[in-house]
Amino acid sequence: MHALVAEHGGRMMGIVHYLFHRTTTQIAPICYLNDLFTVETERGRGVGRALIDAVCRNASVEGSSQVYWLTHETNSTARRLYDSVAEHSSFIEYEKPC
Prior knowledge:
alpha+beta; four-stranded mixed sheet
């Protein structure tokens, strides 16, 4: 697990967690952006975009050709950002308790 923090003037503006994993369809590892949080007063000011871009740069250095993440369909604030920086994959997630 990796983490990056966005800060300004000694104040934390946002944080992102990400990890690399293998898959059966690619040789290089894939990067999963696990958590992205921006302080509510800073949303819409480029903090989330900067954190996503930083994860993409780090993923590229590690040999990963893509970064992917999930969000809830009702998270319209985040989806506006995500729609502007990435393509929606059209996959539907399923969960099964064990």
